[in-house]
Amino acid sequence: MIVCIAEKPSVAREIANVLGANSRHEGYLEGNGYQVTWSYGHLCTLKEPHDYNPKWKQWNSYTLPIFPERSGIKLIDNETYKKQFEVIRTLFSQADEIVNCGDAGQEGELIQRWILQLSGAKCPVKRLWISSLTEESIREGFKHLKPQSDYRLLYEAGLARSIGDWLLGINATRAYTVRYGQFRQILSIGRVQTPTLALIVERQREIEHFEPKPYWELKTIFNDATFSASSGRFQDPDEAEEALNKIKGKPFTITDIVKKMGKEAPPRLFDLTSLQVECNKKHAFSADDTLKTAQSLYEKKFITYPRVDTTYLSTDIYPKCPDILRGLPCYEMATKPLLRHKLPMPKRVFDNSKITDHHAIIPTGITPRNLSDMENKVFDLIARRFIANFYPDSIVATTTVKGESEKVEFKVSGKTIVNPNWRIVFGIHEVNGDNDDEVKTLPEFCLEQTGPHTPSVAQKFTQPPKPYTEATLLRAMETAGKSVDDESLREAMKENGIGRPSTRAAIIETLLSRKYIRKERKNLIATSLGQQLIDLIHDPLLKSVEMTGQWEKKLRLIEKNEVAAADFIAELKQMVAQVITNVRHDTSQTTLQAEPDVVKLVKKKAAEKKAAKSKTPKLPEEGHACPKCGQGFIIKGHTAYGCSRWREGCDWRFPFPTDTKTSK
CA 389, CA 382: separation in Å to the nearest integer? Predict the structure, then answer.
């Protein structure tokens, strides 16, 4: 019997349907020589400190650093998980072969390998590696199953990431909580979480400390076009006013017209981060909502695997593209012209050298039905971008017009869309789903054209940087805090980004749930708790985006067998040990000022505990005189204390407390 294990019940059902395993059993499906079972994502996790050593359960600085000799895993304490794991273990023990059908990525590999290890599976294991859940993709995947050993490095990278996060998180969190925490406030420190928080705090400080500076702009209106002074901003109002007075009432003359023809390529296909960015900008969806929606579309077989970090397709996808386009009837106005001819194969889209585990997110060709509003919006973005990449580049004309008045030079620029091409997929005046402010048409001008104009000077002020939104924060995480607008350069910087595309949404949600940040409309604002935490962290390594980006690169190099997982862990242990030493020797009196609601809650619980203790009745002592008759003495029975003269009619009784700990 061949046992297949998927990551979710819904995925298991899709695989079982294709394999013909239609007989339902408790925890699995069976048929045609296959048994298809499932996990619920993570069934296993790394052991807790006290699982290695009971002394490590207590939070104090003397037990740090906590470095287990060998990291172990355990089943998550959940009755549903335990029940399903027993089903899996039984099936594995009787299997001739196991097929790992986990999500085709680092996390999916880690999840299923841990289950295989904990179950003690002994038979050969093969790997199903697919990018969509369509019947065709599943059948093709089972025809080309790979040995489990082919994905050893992927597993080692995932394991190194998990152990590294555990080592830093457990040790740094305990060290900072014990040393600086107040009112039982846990100070959570994470390898990616803390540098991300530092980005938000740093941006907020820049905004808070920003001092606006005045400047003056000289502009003039000629032939319904607004020209700006070529000299730029004036820092001195007198200079601006002098220039204004100089040209008032004087004619304006066109001195130069430069028109350049250019091309603009369609926006790249989506990876997960760019999809999350676009959904946040256009629809205000959170990164987590976008990921969940994309995952739902994937499990419904409408899009390919979403947890990817590439914007390219492999060349073997090209022959399938016409059928994918035909599977988008709602977009027939855009797809019909493409299907009249052979589709182009642009290098910016199809490049095998840019493909690692997966390709970009695209539709599968299965016509979507019964989508929720959110699913429909996410699918629409994916479909339009896919279609647009088979259209020719947009042809634009950029015109720069220069003029002068009394030797004061001015200029204005405008862009005209000569041929929209791919833009018609989005609407001519939309790029990446956003309004393109640069697309504006200038009036017709000719050299030596002259006439009256309307000049003016306006005072303006420099603006502070904008707070992070989820969209801009995701981009900052992707580029290790560097501001990069060029798509090709951003693509090259991904190796040094912090976090993985699939985990960045969870990092933001963690910061929100721990009240280190909050949302104000679309903006992400650091709370006083989050700011205090960053101020408490004196070790720059813990909050360095660049350092974390270098670690992320090493984790990717583990997948390529260019860095050993053991070396990564050893380096991280050295850093953790140094962090503990620094905290232990900090002689400052700094402590974290807990949030008012936290203080209130702790005080309330302490008061309730004190009140409950004061209400606990004092137990009578055996042998003392009966408090009622005074002649007998107190004795202890089975359910209550009583008077020894109960036979003589004394009915005094004192029941045992219901709390057995108190009665003892």
Answer: 11
| 222 DSSP β-pair partners | 225
CB 44 within 8 A of CB 114: yes
Q: Which residues pair with residue 410 across a beta bridge?
A: 229, 403
Distance from C-alpha of 167 to C-alpha of 419, rounded to nearest angstrom: 57
Rounded CA-CA distance 304/383 in Å is: 11
151 in active site: no
Instruction: State the chain's maximal CA–CA distance in angstroms.
Output: 129
Q: With beta carbons less than 8 A apart as the criterion, state whether 167 and 473 touch.
A: no
* 645 alpha-carbon distance from chain centroid: 74
Catalytic residue among 305, 391, 468, 641: 305
CA–CA dist 227, 171 (Å, integer)? 60
**Contact of 394 with 330, CB cutoff 8 Å:** no
Exposed/middle/buried for residue 51 (C-beta within 10 Å: 0-12, 13-18, 19+): middle
Match 């909580």 to its residue by tokens.
Answer: 177
Q: For the chain, report the end-to-end CA distance as a whole number of angstroms.
A: 57
- The tens digit of pLDDT for each residue in 219-267 reads 999 999 999 999 999 999 999 999 999 999 999 999 999 999 999 999 9
Does the global pTM surpass 0.90? no
Query: What are the tens digits of pLDDT across the range 78-111?
Result: 899 999 999 999 999 999 999 999 888 888 899 9
